[in-house]
TrEMBL record:
UniProt organism field: Sphaerisporangium dianthi
Domain of life: Bacteria
Name of this protein: Gfo/Idh/MocA family protein
Sequence ranges assigned to domain GFO/IDH/MocA-like oxidoreductase in this UniProt record: 162-241
Keyword Oxidoreductase applies: yes
Length: 291
């Protein structure tokens, strides 16, 4: 779905995910245009902005003045602070997961979005891929008794993403939103959750869902796999239903994400993957923290 006039989007952040995903996606259009970039390091912001002819903002407020919507590709604590300011400035928000570094910060973002009445959308990238949507469509008609799932990779062992908050908080805060969103959507609302293990090494979650189904989720960013492994397998009276991302091109979901965000901004209405959804996932993460 396209819009008549591209949505002018400002990007907060100039790290690896901003370069590899956000800037490329937003600049590709035609539904959006990368209008400006702000980062705490001006030289990094210039490197991200230059290939797309985007402006470099000197402050977050200058970025807000140059755009209709703000996309975030920064650590959760930075996003939570600046998203509240952007919402108060009347800007639509394209938000990364997790919504904040903790539940209080996530709630502050969701509250600011609600108070300002601005459009918000979570970058839960898997949810925009056709394979994911087909799985969720089939899961809606599948009677689930139990489920097993995992999200595993080795990115925390070294490389661009083995830094900062990911190493400190581990897989529960980084990978948990993706897997919990899929389980909560495919099987039914999670009504209780408990976690065991060390989120910085391996954490195991057990979820009870409305309707009685039970699911388990394994999360780790510290296993030396050749590629990320994301699987959800549902079991029920009719047999099994499997979701496996190993054979998909994740970039196929980017145009869908971009188009749906632009359409929401033009319509002035958020979709189901809004800041309130991000808060719901943060509540589950908080409840799942091993004691």
């Amino acid at each position: 779905m396209s819009t008549t006039t591209p949505v002018e989007v400002g990007l907060v952040g100039a790290g690896p995910w901003a370069r590899a995903m956000h800037a490329r996606m937003l600049a590709a259009g035609p539904e959006t245009r990368l209008a400006a970039v702000w980062a705490r390091r001006p030289d990094a912001a210039r490197e991200v902005a230059a290939p797309y002819g985007a402006a470099v903002a000197g402050t977050p407020e200058e970025l807000f003045d140059r755009c209709e919507a703000v996309a975030f590709a920064v650590p959760p604590a930075v996003q939570a602070e600046l998203a509240v300011r952007a919402a108060k400035a009347g800007k639509a928000l394209l938000l990364e997961k997790p919504l904040g570094p903790d539940l209080a910060a996530a709630r502050a973002v969701a509250d600011a979005v609600a108070a300002a009445g601005v459009v918000s959308q979570m970058v839960l990238t898997k949810r925009y891929h056709p394979a994911t949507r087909e799985f969720l469509r089939r899961a809606a008609g599948f009677e689930t008794t139990g489920a097993r799932s995992c999200y595993l990779h080795g990115a925390f062992l070294g490389g661009e993403f083995a830094t900062g908050w990911r190493l400190q908080e581990g897989a529960l805060l980084d990978l948990g939103p993706h897997l919990l969103d899929l389980l909560d959507t495919a099987i039914g609302p999670i009504v209780s959750i408990r976690g065991t293990g060390d989120p910085r090494r391996w954490v195991e979650l057990t979820c009870e869902h409305a309707g009685g189904a039970v699911s388990q989720a394994s999360l780790s960013g510290c296993v030396p796999l050749t590629g990320a492994r994301t699987q959800v397998e549902l079991f029920g009276p009719a047999g099994t239903l499997l979701y496996d991302t190993s054979g998909i091109d994740h970039e196929q979901g980017w145009p869908v994400l971009r188009a749906e965000f632009a359409a929401a901004v033009r319509a002035g209405r958020s979709g189901e993957l809004d800041a309130a959804r991000g808060l719901r996932l943060q509540e589950l993460i908080e409840a799942a923290r091993p004691s």
